[in-house]
Amino acid sequence: MSDSEFWDKAHAAATKATWAYLATADGSQPKVRVVHPAFEGKRVWIATGRTSAKARHIAKNPRVELFYQIGAEMVHLTVTGKAKFVEELAEKKRIWNGKVFDYDLAQFWPGGPESKDFGLLLITPERVELTSLPEMTTGRKPEVWRASSK
């Protein structure tokens, strides 16, 4: 499967799910919470409070994992990578105005992308895995994409 075919499948799966689970680490303790991410190409965006527990964890350890379980077919999409907060106002405005998210960010940040607490979290995937429960029960290996080491 080509790179673009894999990402088409990953995007299609992700758009069927409203929610995903983001794992961060608080010291040696994993923490998992529900988020509403948005894919843009090979990047994943999450809007969150800049002073949230997620933000504090990521400041100390940028390693994260994002997990989706999608629909009755139980498709599993797992994104492993590094997260960072984007501070550049131009990029925040581009994402905000470009409607990358499928919900109105102003519900949470009525002051717009300039809001002090508007956190724009970027996850850069290093590994993405796509499988389903039916595939797992037949022993089929997951489809895996890995970032090039270039």
Number of helical segments with 4 or more residues:
4
Portion of residues in beta strands equals 35-45%
**Which descriptor suits the 3D outline?**
globular
Poorly predicted segments: none
Q: Into which percent range does the helicity of residues fall?
A: 10-25%
CATH class value? Mainly Beta
**N- to C-terminal distance:** 20 Å
Whole-number average pLDDT?
92
Question: Would you identify the CATH architecture?
Answer: Roll
- CATH superfamily label: Electron Transport, Fmn-binding Protein, Chain A
The main β sheet shows up as:
8 strands, antiparallel
CATH fold-level topology: Pnp Oxidase, Chain A
Explain what you see:
The chain has one domain: Roll (Pnp Oxidase, Chain A), CATH 2.30.110. Helices cover 23% and strands 42% of the residues. It has 4 helices and 8 strands. Strands 1, 2, 3, 4, 5, 6, 7 and 8 form an 8-stranded antiparallel β-sheet that branches. The protein is globular and about 50 Å long. The relative contact order is 0.20.
Give a brief rundown of this model.
This protein has helices spanning 3-15, 53-60, 89-97, 133-137; strands at residues 20-26, 29-35, 38-40, 43-49, 63-70, 75-86, 118-132, 143-146. It is of the alpha+beta class and 150 residues long. The protein has a single domain, classed as Pnp Oxidase, Chain A (Roll).
